[in-house]
Amino acid sequence: MFLSELDKLVSKYNLPVPRYTSYPTVPFWKEEIDRMKWQEAFRDQYINSCKEEGISIYIHLPFCESLCTYCGCNKKITTNHQVEEEYIDAITKEWDLYRKLMPQKPVIREIHLGGGTPTFFSPENLSIVLNRIFDDAIVHPQKEFSLEGHPNNTTRNHLETLFKLGFSRISYGVQDNDPEVQRIINRIQPLENVKNAIQHARYVGYRSVNFDLIYGLPRQTLASMERTISQTLDLKPDRIAFYSYAHVPWNSRAQRLFDENDLPDAELKMQLYLLAKRMFLSHGYVDIGMDHFSLPSDELFLAKKAGQLYRNFMGYSARRTGFLLGLGVSAISDIGKAFAQNQKTLQHYYDAINRKEFAVTKGHFLSREDISFRKYILDISCNGHTIFRNEDRIALEQFSFPELKKLATDRLVVFNNKELTVTDTGTHFIRNICRAFDLHLLRNDPSIKPAQFSRAV
Protein backbone atom coordinates (compact mmCIF):
# COMPACT_ATOMS: atom_id res chain seq x y z
CA MET A 1 0.00 0.00 0.00
CA PHE A 2 1.37 3.42 -0.92
CA LEU A 3 1.85 5.81 1.98
CA SER A 4 -0.74 8.20 0.49
CA GLU A 5 -3.37 5.44 0.75
CA LEU A 6 -2.35 4.71 4.32
CA ASP A 7 -2.50 8.43 5.08
CA LYS A 8 -6.13 8.46 3.97
CA LEU A 9 -6.93 5.57 6.29
CA VAL A 10 -5.09 7.26 9.16
CA SER A 11 -7.18 10.38 8.65
CA LYS A 12 -10.37 8.32 8.54
CA TYR A 13 -9.68 6.09 11.54
CA ASN A 14 -7.80 8.49 13.82
CA LEU A 15 -10.72 8.68 16.23
CA PRO A 16 -10.95 8.46 20.03
CA VAL A 17 -10.83 4.71 20.71
CA PRO A 18 -10.13 2.69 23.89
CA ARG A 19 -6.80 0.88 24.23
CA TYR A 20 -8.54 -2.36 25.25
CA THR A 21 -6.28 -3.39 28.09
CA SER A 22 -9.59 -4.66 29.46
CA TYR A 23 -13.10 -5.33 28.27
CA PRO A 24 -15.37 -3.74 29.25
CA THR A 25 -13.07 -0.72 29.37
CA VAL A 26 -12.65 1.24 32.59
CA PRO A 27 -15.09 4.11 31.78
CA PHE A 28 -17.92 1.55 31.73
CA TRP A 29 -17.16 0.24 35.22
CA LYS A 30 -19.29 1.28 38.18
CA GLU A 31 -17.79 4.02 40.32
CA GLU A 32 -18.67 2.13 43.52
CA ILE A 33 -18.16 -1.61 43.53
CA ASP A 34 -20.04 -3.88 45.94
CA ARG A 35 -17.12 -4.87 48.20
CA MET A 36 -18.82 -7.92 49.70
CA LYS A 37 -19.72 -9.20 46.24
CA TRP A 38 -16.12 -8.59 45.15
CA GLN A 39 -14.72 -10.56 48.09
CA GLU A 40 -17.08 -13.46 47.39
CA ALA A 41 -16.20 -13.45 43.69
CA PHE A 42 -12.48 -13.32 44.50
CA ARG A 43 -12.69 -16.26 46.90
CA ASP A 44 -14.88 -18.37 44.59
CA GLN A 45 -12.71 -17.74 41.55
CA TYR A 46 -9.55 -18.48 43.50
CA ILE A 47 -10.92 -21.82 44.73
CA ASN A 48 -12.21 -22.83 41.29
CA SER A 49 -9.36 -21.76 39.01
CA CYS A 50 -6.06 -21.23 40.83
CA LYS A 51 -5.02 -24.60 42.23
CA GLU A 52 -2.56 -25.41 39.45
CA GLU A 53 -2.42 -22.34 37.24
CA GLY A 54 -1.36 -20.04 40.05
CA ILE A 55 -1.89 -16.31 40.38
CA SER A 56 -0.29 -13.18 38.97
CA ILE A 57 0.44 -10.16 41.13
CA TYR A 58 0.83 -6.56 40.02
CA ILE A 59 2.31 -4.17 42.60
CA HIS A 60 1.88 -0.48 41.86
CA LEU A 61 4.75 1.61 43.24
CA PRO A 62 3.68 5.20 42.55
CA PHE A 63 6.57 7.40 43.61
CA CYS A 64 8.83 9.34 41.22
CA GLU A 65 11.48 11.92 42.03
CA SER A 66 10.57 14.16 39.09
CA LEU A 67 7.55 14.68 36.84
CA CYS A 68 7.68 13.36 33.27
CA THR A 69 5.14 15.59 31.56
CA TYR A 70 4.03 12.99 29.00
CA CYS A 71 3.05 10.45 31.66
CA GLY A 72 -0.60 9.59 32.29
CA CYS A 73 0.10 7.01 35.02
CA ASN A 74 -0.95 7.30 38.64
CA LYS A 75 2.12 8.74 40.37
CA LYS A 76 3.24 10.82 43.33
CA ILE A 77 6.20 13.18 42.89
CA THR A 78 8.54 13.41 45.87
CA THR A 79 12.22 13.30 46.78
CA ASN A 80 11.39 12.18 50.32
CA HIS A 81 12.29 8.50 50.50
CA GLN A 82 10.85 8.18 53.99
CA VAL A 83 7.51 7.51 52.25
CA GLU A 84 8.76 4.05 51.30
CA GLU A 85 8.22 2.39 54.67
CA GLU A 86 4.59 3.47 55.09
CA TYR A 87 3.77 2.30 51.58
CA ILE A 88 5.34 -1.16 51.84
CA ASP A 89 3.55 -1.63 55.18
CA ALA A 90 0.25 -0.82 53.42
CA ILE A 91 1.03 -3.30 50.62
CA THR A 92 1.74 -5.96 53.25
CA LYS A 93 -1.56 -5.26 55.04
CA GLU A 94 -3.47 -5.40 51.76
CA TRP A 95 -1.82 -8.72 50.87
CA ASP A 96 -2.83 -10.06 54.30
CA LEU A 97 -6.46 -9.09 53.64
CA TYR A 98 -6.49 -11.00 50.35
CA ARG A 99 -4.53 -13.90 51.81
CA LYS A 100 -7.43 -14.52 54.23
CA LEU A 101 -9.70 -15.10 51.20
CA MET A 102 -7.41 -17.87 49.93
CA PRO A 103 -8.07 -21.20 51.70
CA GLN A 104 -4.63 -22.57 50.87
CA LYS A 105 -1.24 -21.06 50.14
CA PRO A 106 -1.32 -19.37 46.74
CA VAL A 107 1.05 -20.41 43.99
CA ILE A 108 2.62 -17.28 42.53
CA ARG A 109 3.21 -17.57 38.79
CA GLU A 110 3.87 -13.94 37.86
CA ILE A 111 4.86 -10.71 39.59
CA HIS A 112 5.23 -7.33 37.94
CA LEU A 113 6.47 -4.20 39.68
CA GLY A 114 5.07 -1.13 37.94
CA GLY A 115 4.70 2.54 38.64
CA GLY A 116 5.53 5.32 39.01
CA THR A 117 9.17 4.32 39.33
CA PRO A 118 9.63 0.98 41.12
CA THR A 119 13.36 1.63 41.46
CA PHE A 120 12.52 4.76 43.48
CA PHE A 121 12.34 2.25 46.34
CA SER A 122 15.57 1.03 47.87
CA PRO A 123 16.62 -2.56 47.12
CA GLU A 124 16.20 -3.30 50.83
CA ASN A 125 12.59 -2.13 50.92
CA LEU A 126 11.71 -3.98 47.71
CA SER A 127 13.19 -7.11 49.26
CA ILE A 128 11.17 -6.60 52.46
CA VAL A 129 7.78 -6.34 50.76
CA LEU A 130 8.43 -9.22 48.36
CA ASN A 131 9.67 -11.54 51.10
CA ARG A 132 6.59 -10.77 53.17
CA ILE A 133 4.50 -12.03 50.26
CA PHE A 134 6.73 -15.05 49.58
CA ASP A 135 6.67 -16.09 53.26
CA ASP A 136 3.01 -17.04 52.93
CA ALA A 137 2.98 -18.38 49.36
CA ILE A 138 4.53 -20.94 47.02
CA VAL A 139 6.63 -19.67 44.12
CA HIS A 140 5.96 -21.61 40.92
CA PRO A 141 9.11 -23.20 39.40
CA GLN A 142 8.22 -21.62 36.04
CA LYS A 143 7.72 -18.15 37.47
CA GLU A 144 7.89 -14.94 35.45
CA PHE A 145 8.95 -11.97 37.59
CA SER A 146 9.50 -8.59 35.95
CA LEU A 147 9.86 -4.92 36.77
CA GLU A 148 9.95 -1.50 35.21
CA GLY A 149 13.16 0.44 35.73
CA HIS A 150 14.38 3.98 35.16
CA PRO A 151 17.83 4.06 33.50
CA ASN A 152 18.88 6.92 35.78
CA ASN A 153 18.25 5.25 39.12
CA THR A 154 18.27 1.47 38.61
CA THR A 155 21.44 0.46 40.42
CA ARG A 156 23.47 -2.74 40.30
CA ASN A 157 22.22 -3.36 43.83
CA HIS A 158 18.59 -3.14 42.64
CA LEU A 159 19.30 -5.62 39.86
CA GLU A 160 21.21 -8.10 42.01
CA THR A 161 18.69 -7.99 44.89
CA LEU A 162 15.70 -8.61 42.63
CA PHE A 163 17.53 -11.23 40.56
CA LYS A 164 18.17 -13.24 43.74
CA LEU A 165 14.43 -13.02 44.45
CA GLY A 166 13.62 -14.57 41.08
CA PHE A 167 13.27 -11.56 38.77
CA SER A 168 14.52 -12.26 35.26
CA ARG A 169 13.01 -9.52 33.08
CA ILE A 170 13.31 -5.75 33.23
CA SER A 171 11.77 -3.07 31.03
CA TYR A 172 13.56 0.25 30.94
CA GLY A 173 11.52 3.37 30.26
CA VAL A 174 13.70 4.99 27.60
CA GLN A 175 10.92 6.81 25.66
CA ASP A 176 13.28 8.85 23.40
CA ASN A 177 17.02 9.59 23.23
CA ASP A 178 16.80 13.01 21.58
CA PRO A 179 17.97 15.77 24.00
CA GLU A 180 15.35 18.28 22.82
CA VAL A 181 12.49 15.78 23.19
CA GLN A 182 13.83 14.77 26.61
CA ARG A 183 13.96 18.41 27.68
CA ILE A 184 10.38 19.14 26.72
CA ILE A 185 9.00 15.99 28.39
CA ASN A 186 11.26 16.57 31.44
CA ARG A 187 12.95 13.18 31.25
CA ILE A 188 16.67 13.83 30.93
CA GLN A 189 18.63 10.58 30.72
CA PRO A 190 21.94 10.55 28.85
CA LEU A 191 22.43 7.69 26.41
CA GLU A 192 25.37 6.56 28.54
CA ASN A 193 22.94 5.85 31.41
CA VAL A 194 20.78 3.74 29.12
CA LYS A 195 23.84 1.77 27.94
CA ASN A 196 24.98 1.18 31.51
CA ALA A 197 21.50 0.08 32.58
CA ILE A 198 21.19 -2.61 29.90
CA GLN A 199 24.79 -3.79 30.36
CA HIS A 200 24.37 -4.12 34.13
CA ALA A 201 21.15 -6.12 33.75
CA ARG A 202 22.77 -8.53 31.31
CA TYR A 203 25.86 -8.89 33.48
CA VAL A 204 23.72 -9.75 36.52
CA GLY A 205 21.89 -12.41 34.49
CA TYR A 206 18.52 -11.01 33.37
CA ARG A 207 17.39 -13.13 30.43
CA SER A 208 15.11 -10.46 28.96
CA VAL A 209 16.04 -6.78 28.90
CA ASN A 210 13.43 -4.61 27.21
CA PHE A 211 12.91 -1.00 26.17
CA ASP A 212 9.80 1.16 26.24
CA LEU A 213 9.81 3.81 23.51
CA ILE A 214 7.12 6.33 22.57
CA TYR A 215 6.21 7.89 19.23
CA GLY A 216 4.14 11.02 18.90
CA LEU A 217 5.96 13.03 21.58
CA PRO A 218 6.46 16.80 21.23
CA ARG A 219 9.24 17.88 18.84
CA GLN A 220 9.85 14.39 17.47
CA THR A 221 10.94 14.36 13.83
CA LEU A 222 11.76 11.61 11.37
CA ALA A 223 15.46 12.41 11.75
CA SER A 224 15.39 12.33 15.56
CA MET A 225 13.35 9.12 15.55
CA GLU A 226 15.79 7.44 13.19
CA ARG A 227 18.66 8.30 15.57
CA THR A 228 16.79 6.96 18.60
CA ILE A 229 15.91 3.71 16.83
CA SER A 230 19.47 3.26 15.52
CA GLN A 231 20.86 3.73 19.04
CA THR A 232 18.28 1.27 20.37
CA LEU A 233 19.17 -1.34 17.76
CA ASP A 234 22.85 -1.03 18.66
CA LEU A 235 21.93 -2.08 22.21
CA LYS A 236 19.67 -4.90 20.95
CA PRO A 237 17.02 -5.20 23.68
CA ASP A 238 15.09 -8.47 23.65
CA ARG A 239 11.73 -6.72 23.35
CA ILE A 240 10.64 -3.25 22.35
CA ALA A 241 7.32 -1.75 23.35
CA PHE A 242 6.83 1.10 20.87
CA TYR A 243 3.88 2.94 22.38
CA SER A 244 1.75 5.60 20.77
CA TYR A 245 1.75 8.71 22.95
CA ALA A 246 -1.75 9.18 24.33
CA HIS A 247 -2.52 12.87 24.61
CA VAL A 248 -5.23 13.06 27.29
CA PRO A 249 -4.75 16.46 28.97
CA TRP A 250 -8.25 16.21 30.50
CA ASN A 251 -6.94 13.28 32.59
CA SER A 252 -3.28 14.29 32.99
CA ARG A 253 -2.54 17.80 34.22
CA ALA A 254 1.12 17.55 33.26
CA GLN A 255 0.20 17.15 29.59
CA ARG A 256 -1.40 20.59 29.71
CA LEU A 257 2.14 22.00 29.88
CA PHE A 258 2.70 21.06 26.24
CA ASP A 259 2.22 23.46 23.38
CA GLU A 260 -0.01 21.28 21.21
CA ASN A 261 1.63 22.80 18.13
CA ASP A 262 4.75 20.82 19.11
CA LEU A 263 2.90 17.52 18.80
CA PRO A 264 3.27 15.68 15.46
CA ASP A 265 0.04 15.50 13.47
CA ALA A 266 -1.55 12.14 12.66
CA GLU A 267 0.23 11.85 9.30
CA LEU A 268 3.69 12.48 10.78
CA LYS A 269 2.90 10.24 13.74
CA MET A 270 2.13 7.35 11.40
CA GLN A 271 5.33 8.06 9.46
CA LEU A 272 7.30 7.91 12.73
CA TYR A 273 5.73 4.55 13.48
CA LEU A 274 6.34 3.10 10.01
CA LEU A 275 9.95 4.31 10.00
CA ALA A 276 10.65 2.60 13.30
CA LYS A 277 8.78 -0.55 12.30
CA ARG A 278 10.81 -0.88 9.09
CA MET A 279 14.02 -0.49 11.09
CA PHE A 280 12.94 -3.05 13.69
CA LEU A 281 11.96 -5.64 11.07
CA SER A 282 15.11 -5.09 9.01
CA HIS A 283 17.20 -5.85 12.11
CA GLY A 284 15.54 -9.16 12.90
CA TYR A 285 12.71 -8.13 15.21
CA VAL A 286 9.22 -9.62 14.81
CA ASP A 287 5.97 -7.66 15.02
CA ILE A 288 4.05 -9.15 17.96
CA GLY A 289 1.09 -6.78 17.68
CA MET A 290 -0.27 -3.61 19.31
CA ASP A 291 3.09 -1.81 18.97
CA HIS A 292 5.24 -4.60 20.44
CA PHE A 293 8.31 -6.15 18.79
CA SER A 294 10.63 -8.91 19.94
CA LEU A 295 13.61 -10.94 18.79
CA PRO A 296 12.67 -14.41 17.42
CA SER A 297 14.42 -16.01 20.41
CA ASP A 298 12.17 -14.21 22.91
CA GLU A 299 9.40 -16.22 24.56
CA LEU A 300 6.84 -13.60 23.56
CA PHE A 301 7.35 -14.47 19.88
CA LEU A 302 7.38 -18.18 20.67
CA ALA A 303 4.05 -17.77 22.49
CA LYS A 304 2.56 -15.90 19.53
CA LYS A 305 3.78 -18.60 17.16
CA ALA A 306 2.15 -21.25 19.34
CA GLY A 307 -1.11 -19.28 19.61
CA GLN A 308 -0.63 -18.81 23.36
CA LEU A 309 -0.06 -15.05 23.51
CA TYR A 310 -2.16 -13.24 26.12
CA ARG A 311 -2.81 -9.61 27.01
CA ASN A 312 -3.77 -7.98 30.29
CA PHE A 313 -3.18 -4.76 32.23
CA MET A 314 0.54 -5.56 32.43
CA GLY A 315 0.81 -5.83 28.63
CA TYR A 316 1.50 -8.93 26.56
CA SER A 317 2.28 -12.17 28.35
CA ALA A 318 3.61 -15.49 27.12
CA ARG A 319 0.96 -17.33 29.12
CA ARG A 320 -2.66 -16.83 30.00
CA THR A 321 -3.12 -15.11 33.33
CA GLY A 322 -6.62 -15.87 34.49
CA PHE A 323 -6.22 -14.43 37.97
CA LEU A 324 -4.43 -11.12 38.47
CA LEU A 325 -4.26 -9.49 41.90
CA GLY A 326 -3.42 -5.79 41.94
CA LEU A 327 -1.83 -4.38 45.10
CA GLY A 328 -1.24 -0.70 45.84
CA VAL A 329 -2.86 2.62 45.05
CA SER A 330 -4.94 2.57 41.82
CA ALA A 331 -3.90 -1.05 41.09
CA ILE A 332 -6.39 -3.14 39.10
CA SER A 333 -7.31 -6.76 39.78
CA ASP A 334 -8.71 -9.06 37.10
CA ILE A 335 -10.10 -12.39 38.30
CA GLY A 336 -11.67 -13.43 34.99
CA LYS A 337 -15.27 -12.69 35.86
CA ALA A 338 -14.75 -9.33 37.59
CA PHE A 339 -12.48 -6.28 37.64
CA ALA A 340 -11.75 -4.07 40.64
CA GLN A 341 -9.59 -0.95 40.94
CA ASN A 342 -8.14 0.41 44.16
CA GLN A 343 -8.52 3.95 45.44
CA LYS A 344 -6.60 6.38 43.25
CA THR A 345 -5.25 8.70 45.95
CA LEU A 346 -2.69 7.66 48.54
CA GLN A 347 -4.68 9.04 51.44
CA HIS A 348 -7.87 7.20 50.49
CA TYR A 349 -5.86 4.03 49.89
CA TYR A 350 -4.12 4.30 53.27
CA ASP A 351 -7.39 5.10 55.06
CA ALA A 352 -9.06 1.94 53.72
CA ILE A 353 -6.11 -0.32 54.47
CA ASN A 354 -5.67 1.09 58.00
CA ARG A 355 -9.36 0.35 58.65
CA LYS A 356 -8.55 -3.22 57.59
CA GLU A 357 -10.85 -2.84 54.59
CA PHE A 358 -10.26 -3.70 50.96
CA ALA A 359 -9.26 -0.55 49.06
CA VAL A 360 -11.30 -1.37 45.94
CA THR A 361 -13.56 1.42 44.82
CA LYS A 362 -14.43 0.93 41.16
CA GLY A 363 -15.15 -2.22 39.20
CA HIS A 364 -17.30 -4.40 37.00
CA PHE A 365 -18.79 -7.89 37.22
CA LEU A 366 -18.76 -9.46 33.77
CA SER A 367 -21.88 -10.89 32.17
CA ARG A 368 -21.77 -13.95 29.91
CA GLU A 369 -21.86 -11.59 26.93
CA ASP A 370 -18.97 -9.54 28.36
CA ILE A 371 -16.83 -12.66 28.72
CA SER A 372 -17.61 -13.79 25.19
CA PHE A 373 -16.87 -10.45 23.52
CA ARG A 374 -13.79 -9.98 25.67
CA LYS A 375 -12.44 -13.14 24.06
CA TYR A 376 -13.02 -11.73 20.56
CA ILE A 377 -11.02 -8.64 21.50
CA LEU A 378 -8.23 -10.72 23.05
CA ASP A 379 -8.10 -12.99 19.99
CA ILE A 380 -7.75 -10.00 17.66
CA SER A 381 -5.13 -8.15 19.72
CA CYS A 382 -3.06 -11.29 20.35
CA ASN A 383 -3.49 -13.43 17.24
CA GLY A 384 -5.18 -11.29 14.58
CA HIS A 385 -7.91 -13.89 14.17
CA THR A 386 -11.10 -14.95 15.91
CA ILE A 387 -13.92 -17.47 15.47
CA PHE A 388 -17.53 -16.40 16.08
CA ARG A 389 -19.79 -18.36 18.42
CA ASN A 390 -23.41 -19.15 17.64
CA GLU A 391 -24.65 -17.96 21.03
CA ASP A 392 -23.42 -14.43 20.13
CA ARG A 393 -25.11 -14.37 16.72
CA ILE A 394 -27.80 -11.78 17.52
CA ALA A 395 -25.40 -9.24 19.02
CA LEU A 396 -22.81 -9.87 16.31
CA GLU A 397 -25.30 -9.28 13.52
CA GLN A 398 -26.82 -6.23 15.17
CA PHE A 399 -23.66 -4.43 16.28
CA SER A 400 -20.37 -6.01 15.15
CA PHE A 401 -21.01 -7.11 11.56
CA PRO A 402 -22.12 -3.64 10.34
CA GLU A 403 -18.86 -2.21 11.73
CA LEU A 404 -16.80 -5.04 10.26
CA LYS A 405 -18.30 -4.44 6.83
CA LYS A 406 -16.93 -0.89 6.91
CA LEU A 407 -13.51 -2.16 7.97
CA ALA A 408 -13.57 -4.83 5.25
CA THR A 409 -14.31 -2.17 2.61
CA ASP A 410 -11.00 -0.56 3.55
CA ARG A 411 -9.28 -3.98 3.53
CA LEU A 412 -8.50 -3.93 7.25
CA VAL A 413 -10.21 -7.27 7.88
CA VAL A 414 -11.50 -10.30 6.01
CA PHE A 415 -14.53 -11.92 7.63
CA ASN A 416 -17.57 -14.10 7.08
CA ASN A 417 -20.28 -15.46 9.38
CA LYS A 418 -17.82 -17.85 11.01
CA GLU A 419 -14.51 -16.05 11.49
CA LEU A 420 -12.41 -12.91 11.06
CA THR A 421 -8.78 -12.32 10.10
CA VAL A 422 -6.88 -9.04 10.38
CA THR A 423 -5.04 -8.05 7.18
CA ASP A 424 -1.51 -6.63 7.02
CA THR A 425 -2.99 -3.16 6.63
CA GLY A 426 -5.36 -3.84 9.50
CA THR A 427 -2.46 -4.43 11.90
CA HIS A 428 -2.04 -0.62 12.00
CA PHE A 429 -5.64 -0.26 13.21
CA ILE A 430 -6.10 -3.01 15.82
CA ARG A 431 -7.85 -0.68 18.26
CA ASN A 432 -10.40 0.28 15.60
CA ILE A 433 -11.03 -3.39 14.82
CA CYS A 434 -11.45 -4.24 18.51
CA ARG A 435 -14.00 -1.44 18.72
CA ALA A 436 -16.31 -3.44 16.44
CA PHE A 437 -16.78 -5.87 19.35
CA ASP A 438 -17.21 -3.23 22.05
CA LEU A 439 -20.92 -3.62 22.69
CA HIS A 440 -20.86 -1.16 25.58
CA LEU A 441 -19.54 1.54 23.28
CA LEU A 442 -21.67 0.61 20.26
CA ARG A 443 -24.84 0.67 22.34
CA ASN A 444 -24.14 4.36 22.97
CA ASP A 445 -24.16 4.65 26.74
CA PRO A 446 -25.00 8.38 27.12
CA SER A 447 -22.72 8.70 30.18
CA ILE A 448 -19.63 7.81 28.14
CA LYS A 449 -18.13 10.51 25.96
CA PRO A 450 -15.81 9.34 23.15
CA ALA A 451 -13.40 12.17 23.96
CA GLN A 452 -12.48 10.30 27.16
CA PHE A 453 -10.30 8.04 25.02
CA SER A 454 -7.03 8.84 23.26
CA ARG A 455 -6.98 8.85 19.46
CA ALA A 456 -6.22 5.62 17.61
CA VAL A 457 -3.08 7.07 15.97
Short recap of the structure:
The protein has two domains: 1-18 and 367-444, Arc Repressor Mutant, subunit A (Orthogonal Bundle); 19-327, tm_1862 like domain (pyruvate-formate lyase- activating enzyme, Alpha-Beta Horseshoe).
Report what the structure shows:
- With 457 residues, the chain is α/β, with parallel strands linked by helices.
- The protein folds into two domains: 1-18 and 367-444, Arc Repressor Mutant, subunit A; 19-327, pyruvate-formate lyase- activating enzyme.
- 38% of the residues lie in helices and 21% in strands.
- It is built from 15 helices and 19 strands.
- It has helices spanning 3-13, 35-49, 83-99, 123-134, 156-164, 179-185, 191-204, 222-235, 266-282, 299-305, 346-354, 368-383, 393-409, 430-435, 439-442, and strands at 55-61, 63-64, 76-77, 107-115, 138-149, 167-175, 208-215, 239-244, 286-289, 292-294, 310-312, 315-317, 324-327, 332-334, 338-342, 360-365, 385-387, 413-415, 419-422.
- Strands 9-10-8-7-6-5-4-1-13 form a nine-stranded mixed sheet, sandwiched between helices.
- Strand 11 (310-312) and strand 12 (315-317) form a beta hairpin.
- The two termini are 18 Å apart.
- The relative contact order is 0.16.
The major pleated sheet works out as: 9 strands, mixed
Uncertain spans, ≥5 residues at pLDDT below 50?
none
Spatial shape? globular
> In total, how many domains does the architecture comprise?
2
CATH topology of the largest domain: pyruvate-formate lyase- activating enzyme
Q: CATH first level of the largest domain: which class? A: Alpha Beta
CATH superfamily of the largest domain: tm_1862 like domain
Please list the strands of the largest sheet in the order they lie side by side: 9-10-8-7-6-5-4-1-13
Number of separate helices: 15
Number-wise, the strands total: 19
Question: N- to C-terminal separation?
Answer: 18 Å
Average pLDDT reading: 91
Task: Report strand %.
Answer: 15-25%
Question: How would you classify the helix and strand content by structural class?
Answer: alpha/beta
Helix content percent band: 25-40%
CATH architecture of the largest domain: Alpha-Beta Horseshoe
Structural Rg: 21 Å
